[in-house]
Amino acid sequence: MEIIRTIDALNQRIDTLKRQGRIVGFVPTMGALHKGHISLVNRAGVECSAVIVSIFVNPTQFNNPDDLERYPRDLQKDVEKLRPTLCKIVFAPSIEEMYPQPDTRRFDFGMLDKVMEGAFRPGHFNGVAQVVSRLFDIVKPDKAFFGEKDFQQLAVINKMVHQLGYDIEIVPCPIVREKDGLAKSSRNVLLSEVQRQNAPEIWHTLFESLTFANSNSVEQTRKFVIDGVNAIPELKVEYFDIVNGETLQSIDNWDDADYVAGCIAVFAGDIRLIDNVIYKNNIL
Ligand code: PAF
Asked: Which of 57, 167, 199, 232 has its Cβ near the most Cβ atoms within 10 Å?
């Protein structure tokens, strides 16, 4: 496994890969790798002939300093988890390497980042766009792989790729869940025993809402999910919305969009978890 720390060294490595005619697949991460990340890496391994994983806890996307500070970091453990995969290059830059000067770029994603995560974590998606565009400029991948758990992040990245004219295929990859249904997340290890026991109810409630939605309105379904999750000890819904899966704007009726998703953020104590469910997808 090659662990590359500087942009210059990575550029040289990538030039060689490109000269060899390799298709470069890129999985950006903030480390604390779990099976969700590994599924992205495996997918990249199937679709590409070279796989690069970046591990960088990006400060510009954290609007809560405590969240940034306690974000789990263990590069050696991450490298061990990548060893059995087809990823042979890890890019793990320092903050100074990524941001020799502060990144002052301001992106305009219209209403896409004004709702849900964007509304509750102001500046978060601007930070994500800063780091992902910077990583795209450095890695110059043919394809980049992102998890569908971060539903809004995927929409924002797609928009950014379009706006900045990147010739990169964005590959969405399905959510990976624990056996009990909890979506895999680097934050799961921070949950207390009770929180960990109760957290799968987030997915169970979303899943039950699929059936509930068949015979109830959008508004009733929103209430079903919010009340259901709030009734579980230690869980507190920050937001749950049922949205047009393309524009991410709230809908009033099930017929308002061909692609409909329900996106949720929940606090388990002070650990924030997100998940989502697809009610309808007629745009495939
Ligand atoms: O999804 C994440 O882990 C991060 O937002 C990403 C895409 C690696 C950017 O820091």
From this structure: 199
Query: Residue 225's closest CA among 244, 246, 249, 201?
Result: 201
Q: At what angle do helices 151-164 and 124-139 cross, to 10 degrees?
A: 60
CB of 127 shorter than 6 A to ligand 1: no
Four-point Cα dihedral 76, 200, 147, 250, nearest 10? -140
Q: For the chain, which domains are there? A: 2-173 (3.40.50.620), 186-275 (3.30.1300.10)
Residue with tokens 């890496």: 41
| Token pair listed for 205 | 């409630």
Does an H or E element contain 24, and which?
A: strand 24-29
At 53, is the pLDDT very low, low, confident or very high (cuts 50, 70, 90)? very high
Q: Degrees (nearest 5) of the Cα angle 107, 109, 112? A: 145
> For 13-47, what is each residue's pLDDT tens digit?
999 999 999 999 999 999 999 999 999 999 999 99
